[in-house]
Amino acid sequence: IPQISYASTAPELSDSSRYEFFSRVVPPDSYQAQAMVDVVRALGWSYVSTLASEGNYGESGVEAFVQSSREAGGLCIAQSIKIPREPRPGEFQKVIGRLMETSTARGVVLFANEDDIRRVLEAASQANLSGHFAWVGSDSWGAKMAPVAGLEEAAAGAITILPKRASVPGFDDYFTSRSLENNRRNLWFHEFWEEDFNCRL
């Protein structure tokens, strides 16, 4: 079944021998990992830590960052920390404690989900370390306000990556003009309609 994804960024999906019917409209994480290496090098940093949410997105993203940094040279990884899928109480305080073990590596590259980012920032704030770390976040943070709302001081100065986006002229008008009467060719439209309008057809 041919698939086109609007958000799947895992580098493995670029393997056309395994996923020959898969296509996407966003670049794989290897591109943003390279962009993050470029940002870190442009800032003159040579010693950083990485922080990843457990799972394909976080671990593959950090792996791509580490690989790109090796190829670029001149960049040492102080430590790579993984946030468990189901963190225990106090887990994020431990993460901040581990980051402080190599406290001179103030740059932290994050490939983490929104919730993990927020909890890392909360832990940094609670440890009175707002402003100590310089965060470089992936597209899961991007331009979103939710991870930093109320934690602006801990997030101040963060640099986040977001793939270039553009609005398609006329799409919003077209999409909002669709109804059950004029959109019969889309087999799943009635499911969307029921979900969006909370009704049963």
Explain the overall architecture.
It is a single chain. The protein is of the alpha/beta class. The chain has two domains: 29-160, 3-Layer(aba) Sandwich (Rossmann fold), CATH 3.40.50; 168-200, no CATH class. It has helices at 29-42, 56-72, 91-101, 114-126, 152-155, 171-176, 189-197, and strands at residues 3-5, 22-24, 47-53, 76-83, 107-111, 134-137, 159-160. Helix 5 links the parallel strand 6 and strand 7 (159-160). The protein is globular. The mean pLDDT is 93. This is GRM6 protein. Keywords: Disulfide bond, Glycoprotein, Membrane, Receptor, Transmembrane, Transmembrane helix. It comes from Upupa epops. GO terms for molecular function: G protein-coupled receptor activity.
